[in-house]
UniProtKB/TrEMBL annotation:
Residues 117-138 are annotated as: Disordered. The keyword NAD does not apply. The keyword Ribosomal protein does not apply. SUPFAM superfamilies: RmlC-like cupins (SSF51182). Keywords: Isomerase. Residues 122-138 have a biased composition (Basic and acidic residues). It comes from Nonomuraea rubra. This is Mannose-6-phosphate isomerase-like protein (Cupin superfamily).
Length: 138
């Protein structure tokens, strides 16, 4: 078997059960099992959907800052509480608990990598403007 480099920013990578890995262009055809690795350059808030909350009800998620500085926010579990902020710098990651609403915000243009179960994630529009998002949105 000849090994060839995988272009992370142009490939869909699916970590399958049983230790198999599939990489190729286009979306991941998961069949609902395994995990998806996604790496991308984020220049603006649109690239990380900073104006949306996301939740993975069936699994945890890894969010990693490969290059740059990002903030990972966890939505409060109880009304009236503040968002939890986790600052991630180059080479750091956080594990988002199963079923926890979260969002990413850029401090500077960054390279982000996530590992999630394919499908099953839900998005919800975030209410209200955020000046930090607006600053990197343009």
């Amino acid at each position: 078997m000849t090994l060839t480099p995988i272009e992370l920013f142009a490939s869909a990578i699916h970590l399958r059960p049983g230790g198999r890995i599939h990489a190729g262009p286009g979306p991941v055809d998961s069949g609902g099992d395994g995990w998806r690795l996604k790496a991308f350059h984020a220049k603006t808030g649109d690239d990380v959907r900073a104006d949306h909350w996301q939740v993975n009800p069936d699994a945890e998620e890894i969010v990693s800052c490969v290059i740059g500085k990002i903030r990972l926010y966890l939505r409060p579990e109880e009304p009236g509480r503040r968002e939890e902020e986790i600052r991630l710098t180059a080479g750091t990651a956080a594990i988002v608990p199963r079923g926890r609403w979260h969002r990413i915000q850029l401090d500077i243009p960054s390279t982000v990598m996530t590992i999630t179960p394919p499908g099953g994630a839900r998005l919800e529009k975030r209410a209200g403007p955020d000046p930090r998002y607006d600053r990197l949105h343009a």
